[in-house]
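Exercise 7b. Backbone tokens:
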């Protein structure tokens, strides 16, 4: 039993009921009842991770999602994420997260991964990273494809969230597990399960209610909707990534300036102290030399006077 995770599920169900969300879950028999698996999920909305776990309820499995480490440092979500044994991802040091996921898979956990890494603005499948396939191969567990459709209407990138009573239908489908044998090529396995997810996504869209009017912005351009094309969405993602890099560079430069400004008074004080010490030592040395010279002069005068008296 995992009281924190189970409590979060109960609360989430209550929120979904208040929102009037209408879920259609397909293929939940495909979720393994025991053993590890890499659950790969398409990404069209911010709430996808809360919906993807619905396919695992019938098999009584809990999914350990890989999520950005910033979620784990938040004062509210952090303790919950750690208690639910989700896996933090530091994009600057991804190997640690990868190894954590492989250990969880070998321990028999289902690990949830978004192979597109970020939300697809086009609501089409973006380029898939090969990390999920590499994890499955290394851990010796299958790939479990999961497709969500409709979550973009609740809350997605570039649009206001709609968390009230919207009665939005959401489709969640799980495909048959795809073996990831030892020695398999990760790139080929990624292409294989992406093709399966593309077919699943087409089926989910075909079974979904028609989108009209303002909701056309949540429909892909290829289906007659108003969402950006995959090419346009890629350009938007690249521009956003470049802006993040510039902002990060500016923050680092500002930090370095602040460090220099903090260090400069300390350096000036240290240099002043060193200069004063050097001047004091020089004065002491010159004083000592003068005293030595005076004693020597006095000695010579004494010797000269004694000789004259003779």
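Sequence design result:
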């Amino acid at each position: 039993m995992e009281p924190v995770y189970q409590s979060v599920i109960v609360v989430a169900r209550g929120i979904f009921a208040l929102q009037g969300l209408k879920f259609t879950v397909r293929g939940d028999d495909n979720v393994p009842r025991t053993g590890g698996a890499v659950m790969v999920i398409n990404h069209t909305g911010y709430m996808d991770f809360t919906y993807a776990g619905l396919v695992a309820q019938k098999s009584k499995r809990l999914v350990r999602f890989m999520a950005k480490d910033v979620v784990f440092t938040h004062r509210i979500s952090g303790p919950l994420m750690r208690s639910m044994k989700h896996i933090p991802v530091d994009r600057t040091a991804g190997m640690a997260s990868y190894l954590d996921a492989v250990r969880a898979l070998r321990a028999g956990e289902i690990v949830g991964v978004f192979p597109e890494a970020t939300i697809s603005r086009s609501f089409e499948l973006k380029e898939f990273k090969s990390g999920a396939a590499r994890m499955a191969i290394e851990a010796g567990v299958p790939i479990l494809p999961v497709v969500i459709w409709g979550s973009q209407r609740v809350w997605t990138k570039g649009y206001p969230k709609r968390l009230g009573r919207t009665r939005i239908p959401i489709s969640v489908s799980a495909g048959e597990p795809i073996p990831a044998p030892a020695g398999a090529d990760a790139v080929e396995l990624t292409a294989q399960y992406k093709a399966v997810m593309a077919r699943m996504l087409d089926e989910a869209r075909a079974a979904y209610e028609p989108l009209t009017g303002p909701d056309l912005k949540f429909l892909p351009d290829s289906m007659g909707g108003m969402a950006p094309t995959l090419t346009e969405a890629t350009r938007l993602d690249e521009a956003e990534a470049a802006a993040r890099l510039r902002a990060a560079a500016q923050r680092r430069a500002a930090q370095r300036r602040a460090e220099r400004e903090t260090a400069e008074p300390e350096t000036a004080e240290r240099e002043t102290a060193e200069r004063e010490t050097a001047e004091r030592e020089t004065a002491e040395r010159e004083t000592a030399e003068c005293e030595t010279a005076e004693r020597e002069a006095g000695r010579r005068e004494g010797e000269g006077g004694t000789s004259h008296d003779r």
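Instructor comment: The CA atoms of residues 36 and 108 lie 4 Å apart. The domain at 3-214 is CATH 3.40.1130.10 (Glycerol-3-phosphate (1)-acyltransferase).
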